[in-house]
Amino acid sequence: MRLSLDTQDPTPKFQQLIDQIQRQIASGTLYPGARLPSVRQLAKTLAMNPMTVSRSYQQLADEGWLERLPGVGMQVSETMRPAEPEQRLHYVEGALAHFIQAASEAGYSKSETMALIMTHWERYSGDQALE
Fold this sequence. Notes:
The chain is mainly alpha-helical. Helices cover 53% and strands 6% of the residues. The chain has helices spanning 13-27, 39-46, 50-62, 85-88, 93-105, 110-125; strands at 66-69, 73-76. It has a two-stranded antiparallel ribbon. α1 (13-27) crosses α3 (50-62) and α2 (39-46) packs across α3 (50-62). The longest helix is centred in the C-terminal third of the chain and has 16 residues, at 110-125. It is elongated. The termini are close together.
């Protein structure tokens, strides 16, 4: 599971966490039954307030993404399945539109923008596993 917070992003930390977990479930990276780190462990790893992590987990549970198992902790709901490619676009479309607009405004052509993505893919998509 890869999670990180962007301190430059105006999106609240709890929402950043929710969005990332939802994207990983939709992509199949987090599969049904996968256990999530404890609230304390994740809060320490991400340097967050434990109440913020708890709030994120609770909202995801309320929406059916996660389920709390007594004595086990939080896990991905058994009913969740990876989304189809068309459905996954929903999770990146806003960021993609913003990136394309920014690249265009900076004077990058379509091919230069694609080269930027290819050049920086490893840096921004690298695994940062949480144990």
